[in-house]
Write a structure and sequence with these properties.
By secondary structure, the protein is α/β, with parallel strands linked by helices. About 40% of the residues lie in helices and about 15% in strands. The chain has 13 helices and 14 strands. The strands form five sheets. Strands 1-9-8-5 form a four-stranded mixed β-sheet, sandwiched between helices. A three-stranded parallel β-sheet has the order 3-2-4, sandwiched between helices. It has a three-stranded antiparallel β-sheet with strand order 12-13-14. The radius of gyration is 21 Å and the shape is globular. The two termini are about 20 Å apart.
Amino acid sequence: MVDVRSQYLKIKDEVDSGIQEVIESCAFINGPKVKEFQKSLEDYLNVKHVIPVANGTDALQIALMTLGLKPGDEVIVPAFTYVATAEVIALLQLIPVMVDVDPNTFNLTGDIVEQAITEKTKAIVPVHLYGQCADMENILKVSKKYNIPVIEDNAQSIGATYTFSDGKQIKSGAIGDIGCTSFYPSKNLGAYGDGGAMYCNNDELAQQIRMIANHGQKKRYYHELVGCNSRLDSIQAAILIIKLKHLDTYNNARGLVASAYDSAFAEIEALQIPERFESSSHVFHQYTLRVKNGKRDELKEHLNSLGVPSMIYYPVPLYKQNAFNNYNDASFSLTVTELLSNEVISLPIHSEMKDEHLNYIISAVQKFF
């Protein structure tokens, strides 16, 4: 699904040198490399504050903690996403209000969000799924109308650009009140271990985030609130400094693979290729098809028999997971989420794709239909 090794070999000397520099300096925690990466990511995103943390899930949890929400407060979240987005809501004794998504972009829209708002709604968490931004202009209009903050789950779309109707362009994750991302190794900007970051343009929020991520302290041993311990280690920062320089190149390479898939599959009636949302670029963390003839699982078996990997993101809606049984009754159902869970399949896509592999994958899919 992703070729981390080939990508590493192209930048091996730089990466090895960066790691060695950290080891020789022994500045393993919050060292110069972490600060350098923080500044580089701030510049790339054109955002005022980046706070590196241990992983993307921590980033989401700390963001919610920063808003000072109370047990029982509601947080709107898509039902079609990875568990982490809703998991942290439940961990903090908040109520995850799971809503449907657009059937073509797989993301939240302003209309979907507004329909779910109640007097208990205290946060909105759009997920930029598969590498493309949600309907942020309209989501922000709803946010402003009801005075509800927006936390962006940007784990899959770092590097994507959102264009507003007035022509203004902002990088994904830097659009709402707080952005959260993951540097899990398979991400478009992946570390060689766990890692994550948060970003915002508000000084007070940034100060609060830093405190919470550092045991609730501004000054060592003086704890102003209950926080946690979440930090990006210096070795991962050294790797990410180098990979950030190549991020746009990596994303462009993914886009070329996606275009080849599009051309090959556009005329197959049973397949729906990924829709491009006109307001957002797409960095294709995943290339996800909809199989509309009811044979998604058969296609997956066929590909597997030919040695082609594929993945289903995500086979079970969040509200059907046992972990969330307390939040909805057994009859609860969302039409689009149910449909997508039965239709989606993701093909290999990464920056190191060889033409021979790409053509083999395309041929394997075409043969099935």
